[in-house]
Each structure stands twice: as structure tokens, then as C-alpha cells.
């Protein structure tokens, strides 16, 4: 699925079509999420998603920006919890289809929270780039009769607060902003040389809680998942991940854990993959990527029946912190969900905004009213560190 290039944009149906000089000119490969190896791993392992890519160019045909597009069938029945009422209202107002999935074109990473959809080269007019991107997305859909008929809505995801003065240009293209669950972020104190230093910086109550979690999880053995042993643990990890995915109130897609094999092969030690074992049983796993000076937590899997007794999830959070400190990183991005427990280990919320537009004008106006009611789930922010 591809369309004719314009004066400002080039369109690609697969990553393999993009010339290597484009990556070099953009200078985007320092960011793991815009490295062709990362993007290729997602494309290769998710055949149910239609992947496309836009390279924006200047009047000399030099690349100025890159955008990753995905077309998915979003199952409205997968929306649970706080979104249930909104989903039902949306169906009654015919903003969402009754029986078939919503055909959604997304600019962003469907599996990871954060600004991973658009890369803008240095020294560019970012507001102008966002406008060009919106126009290019319209051209991409409108130039294909089949696609024009199929697509229900457009979503550009996960802009941080400091980017809103740029991304708000999308309002001129009838996109509606709405707040989503925040990314929970922990800044790693440069005085923390090891995990004991981290514990020492905590108030007594939270330090006691951490030590209790380590005591409860003492029988758990944590093992590196490597290319040598991944075949053995991957089916067990997949079963645990599916339980977590079912519990989520909102999912843009199911992640294929076979992707881990590629990511481990391409990124080596910079891709974190660990399994948690209780005797002979796999009871959890963590995954994540080291991206510049940050560790980004990706998916986890948990045996919920054993979680409370053995403090599996809490141990995972501390494990991420141990890794970030040992690698001398500056930030740890825990991602969305479970905000309160993440705040109890020191993470603070980083607000994220998405932009949504329905293809049909009247439905899009109704959608605006609907989105004004979408709010992140409130939680009690904990402050575990000494002042």
C-alpha cells in the first residue's frame, strides 16, 4: 500500500525501500525507536498491522523528518474499566461502528508510550513540519480509493507537555487533543552509585516497604534471557504477557513476543530481557531498552496468582531501578499503568497528549465533545524520598 510522492513528502510501504542515505541525513539512528533495526523488528513480527512510512523533504529534496504510520483494526470490545461508558456513548452516537472494529491510522508506536512517531531533524521549523505531516497523512489516505473508504479515524500519539506548542498545530487540521495515562518517570540521582544508595535516600516507611518486597521475593531467581535460551522461555513469557494484556483497560494491539528475539539480536546488552523463576516455574519477565541516557521499561509478564505472596511486580520495579543505576543512566521511563505503585518507588507523572480525528466532519464534531470527557485515571501520588 503506497501512494505517489509529493513535493514535500516521500511514501514507503516497507522499511527496506528507504535508502540508507536518508537515515544518515536525518541523523535519527541515535534514538533506538527510530533505528531501522528497531522499526524492522516490529514490522517483521506483526503482519496483522499495515506499516507505512513518510519521509518529509525540503525544496532540495533533502530529508527533514520521518514518520512511522500503522493501520490497525482496533477492537472496541477491548476497551474496559473507565472507558466503558465512553465507548457505549460513542456507539450510540454512531461515532464508533457497532459491530466491526475501528480502522485506525496511527502515527506513533502502538506498543510503547512516548514521542516515538515523528522524528524531526535538527534546526527545522517544527510547527511547519507538523503541518506538512498532517497534509501528507491526508494525501496518503485520499490518494488510495480503497484506503479512503476504509479508514475511520486518525490518531497521533503521545506528545509530552513541552511539545504541545508544536503539536497543537494539528488542531488546524480538525484533530482533537485529549489526555491519556501519564508516563511514570524516575530521575536517577547522580549520587546513587548502587541500589543501597537509592534505598538510603528514601523515607523510612518506603525503605521498609522495599526491604519487605525483597524478603517476600527472596526465593525468586532472576535470569538473563539470551539468544541461547529464548526458545525455552518464550512460550511461558507469552502466556504471562497475555494475562497482563487482558487486564489492561486499553490496548492498541497485542505485542508478538517473537519480536524480542530480533531486538535481542540487534541491540544485544542494550535490550533488557530477564525472566523470573520460582523453583522450576517462570512467574514473570521484564523487558526494556536503553535509549541514549534512559532505560525505557517495555512489557512485563506476571503470574498474578503468585504476585501478592512473592511481591513479583514490586521486585520488578526495583530491578529496573537497579539496572538504571548500574548502567549510570539519567532517567527511567516506567511507561503507563499502575501509576500509584510506580510513584511509591519514586516515579513522577509525565503528562501525555494524543490527537484524534474522525474522517467524517459531523462525527468529528461529536468526537470532540466525547474526548473532553476522557481523563486519565486519578491516583494518589506518593513521595518516597527524603527532602
From TrEMBL:
It comes from Polaribacter butkevichii. GO terms for molecular function: transferase activity. The keyword Transmembrane does not apply. This is GNAT family N-acetyltransferase. InterPro entries: Acyl_CoA_acyltransferase, FemAB-like. Keywords: Transferase.
Amino acid at each position: 500500500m503506497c501512494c505517489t510522492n509529493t513535493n514535500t513528502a516521500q511514501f514507503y510501504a516497507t522499511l527496506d525501500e528507504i535508502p540508507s542515505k536518508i537515515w544518515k541525513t536525518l541523523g535519527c539512528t541515535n534514538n533506538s525507536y527510530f533505528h531501522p533495526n528497531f522499526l524492522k523488528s516490529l514490522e517483521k513480527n506483526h503482519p496483522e498491522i499495515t506499516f507505512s512510512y513518510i519521509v518529509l523533504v525540503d525544496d532540495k529534496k533533502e530529508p527533514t523528518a520521518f514518520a512511522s504510520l500503522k493501520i490497525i483494526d482496533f477492537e472496541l470490545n477491548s476497551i474496559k474499566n473507565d472507558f466503558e461508558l465512553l465507548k457505549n456513548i460513542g456507539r450510540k452516537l454512531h461515532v464508533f461502528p457497532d459491530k466491526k472494529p475501528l480502522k485506525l491510522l496511527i502515527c506513533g508506536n502502538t506498543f510503547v508510550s512516548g514521542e516515538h512517531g515523528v522524528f524531526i531533524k535538527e534546526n527545522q521549523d517544527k510547527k511547519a513540519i507538523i503541518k506538512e505531516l498532517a497534509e501528507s497523512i491526508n494525501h496518503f489516505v485520499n490518494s488510495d480509493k480503497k484506503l479512503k473508504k476504509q479508514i475511520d479515524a486518525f490518531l497521533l500519539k503521545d506528545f509530552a507537555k513541552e511539545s504541545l506548542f508544536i503539536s497543537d498545530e494539528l488542531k488546524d487540521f480538525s484533530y482533537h487533543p485529549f489526555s491519556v495515562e501519564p508516563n511514570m518517570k524516575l530521575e536517577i540521582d547522580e549520587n546513587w552509585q548502587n541500589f543501597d544508595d537509592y534505598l538510603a535516600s528514601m523515607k523510612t516507611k518506603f525503605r521498609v516497604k522495599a526491604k519487605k518486597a525483597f524478603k517476600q521475593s527472596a526465593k525468586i531467581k532472576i535470569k538473563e534471557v539470551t539468544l541461547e535460551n529464548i526458545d525455552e522461555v518464550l512460550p511461558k513469557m507469552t502466556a504471562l504477557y497475555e494475562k497482563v494484556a487482558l487486564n489492561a483497560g486499553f490496548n492498541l494491539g497485542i505485542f508478538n513476543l517473537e519480536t524480542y528475539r530480533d531486538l535481542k539480536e540487534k541491540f544485544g546488552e542494550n535490550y533488557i530481557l530477564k525472566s523470573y523463576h520460582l523453583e522450576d516455574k517462570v512467574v514473570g519477565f521484564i523487558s526494556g531498552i536503553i535509549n541514549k541516557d534512559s532505560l525505557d521499561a517495555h512489557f512485563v509478564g506476571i503470574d498474578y496468582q503468585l504476585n501478592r505472596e512473592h511481591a513479583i511486580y514490586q521486585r520488578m520495579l526495583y530491578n529496573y531501578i537497579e539496572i538504571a543505576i548500574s548502567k549510570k543512566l539519567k532517567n527511567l521511563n516506567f511507561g503507563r499503568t499502575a501509576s500509584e505503585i510506580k510513584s511509591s518507588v519514586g516515579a513522577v507523572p509525565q503528562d501525555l497528549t494524543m490527537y484524534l480525528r474522525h474522517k467524517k466532519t459531523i462525527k468529528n464534531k461529536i468526537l470532540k465533545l466525547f474526548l473532553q470527557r476522557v481523563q486519565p485515571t486519578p491516583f494518589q501520588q506518593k513521595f518516597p524520598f527524603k527532602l
